[in-house]
């Protein structure tokens, strides 16, 4: 198989790792991100993973992958690289290949975005080296707790292979590391994910937690399990924004969960605002403005800045602050309801 054909196979196999384009690289903007595996075969037994089903050991040598990526970069077909790998035999051997690829890229003059995956059980020295080379590094939790991971992966030790390594990652690259949770593979509730989410942001300083709705794959032990609905993944991202970007505590967001600890298919911010009294645009502090559906952190800051110059009196004033239409029913100007005014603009 040619280099190009092997690269295509390994690029397709890397699709399970979430890395939305909203990721903001440190060294350079990254519009076109090449996601690829160094090796497409894995000896681990994760029951949800497509890589474990691969019988052909497709792999690229670090020098070949680096050369192929640099060619794509020069031709304008790729701005950055997200590099992960299956683990065909030994973790240290595979990490060495990932690091060698990164080293070749940097010594060849590539200064763009590089995201290197840290594998479960990686050595601390390898994690430090990955942090030196990359703009972002990550290790996947896959499940919110040790007990949940044990239901779908027997080889990985959650506390030793993942949590311990993630603590090392947080030390090596504070605020610039990410992780991923597979939603629905292990039967976990959203309450469990919410607890995990808060720990990631409050204790470990994780830059982003990504959520991937479980999809059963033919040839895996979970092929008969129903898929997680995509809306569940999307609602978790909305809750994540409230915890990560808004700074809300998990226990304050938990009111949106049903009696079994699951989210419903409704905007969590709107659900939390149902019993909220009207918010006075000209008097409310930042935290109260942030609770209004349709007002995000930037909109709340713009309102505070605008009203320092003069009171806000109309929907047009709010529109200039970037306030969305759905905020109408939650706002008043000095006790005067402005819903009609807001809908008018």
TrEMBL record:
Protein name, as recorded: Radical SAM protein
BP terms from Gene Ontology: DNA repair
Signal peptide annotation: none
Native source organism of the sequence: Methanofollis tationis
Keywords of this entry: Iron, Iron-sulfur, Metal-binding, S-adenosyl-L-methionine
Cited Pfam families: Radical_SAM
Any GO molecular function: metal ion binding
Radical SAM core domain sequence ranges: 26-249
SMART domains reported in the protein's UniProt record: Elp3 (SM00729), HhH1 (SM00278)
């Amino acid at each position: 198989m040619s280099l190009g054909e092997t690269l295509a196979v390994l690029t397709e196999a890397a699709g399970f790792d979430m890395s939305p384009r909203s990721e903001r690289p440190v060294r350079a903007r990254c519009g076109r991100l090449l996601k690829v595996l160094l090796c497409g075969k894995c000896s681990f037994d994760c029951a949800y993973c497509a890589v474990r089903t691969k019988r052909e050991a497709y792999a690229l040598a670090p020098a070949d992958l680096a050369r192929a990526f640099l060619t794509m970069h020069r031709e304008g077909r790729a701005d950055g690289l997200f590099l992960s790998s299956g683990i065909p035999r030994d973790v240290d051997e595979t990490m060495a290949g990932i690091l060698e690829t990164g080293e070749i890229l940097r010594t060849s003059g590539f200064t763009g975005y590089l995201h290197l995956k840290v594998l479960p059980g990686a050595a601390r020295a390898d994690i430090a080296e990955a942090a030196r080379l990359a703009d972002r590094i990550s290790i996947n939790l896959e499940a919110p707790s040790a007990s949940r991971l044990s239901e779908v992966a027997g080889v990985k030790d959650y506390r030793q292979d993942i949590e311990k390594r993630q603590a090392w990652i947080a030390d090596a690259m504070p605020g610039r590391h990410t992780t991923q949770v597979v939603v629905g593979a292990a039967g976990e509730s959203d309450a469990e994910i919410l607890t995990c989410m808060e720990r990631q942001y409050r204790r470990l300083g994780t830059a982003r937690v990504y959520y991937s709705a479980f999809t059963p794959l033919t040839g895996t032990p979970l092929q008969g399990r129903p898929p997680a609905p995509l809306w569940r993944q999307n609602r978790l991202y909305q809750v994540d924004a409230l915890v990560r970007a808004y700074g809300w505590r998990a226990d304050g967001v938990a009111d949106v969960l049903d009696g079994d600890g699951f989210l419903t298919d409704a905007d969590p911010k709107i659900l939390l605002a149902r019993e909220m009294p009207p918010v006075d645009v000209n008097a409310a502090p930042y935290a109260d403005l942030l609770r209004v559906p349709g007002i995000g952190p930037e909109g709340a800051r713009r309102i505070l800045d605008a009203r320092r110059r003069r009171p806000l009196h109309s929907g047009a004033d709010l529109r200039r602050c970037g306030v969305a239409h759905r905020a109408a029913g939650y706002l008043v100007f000095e006790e005067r309801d402005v819903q009609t005014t807001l809908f008018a603009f």
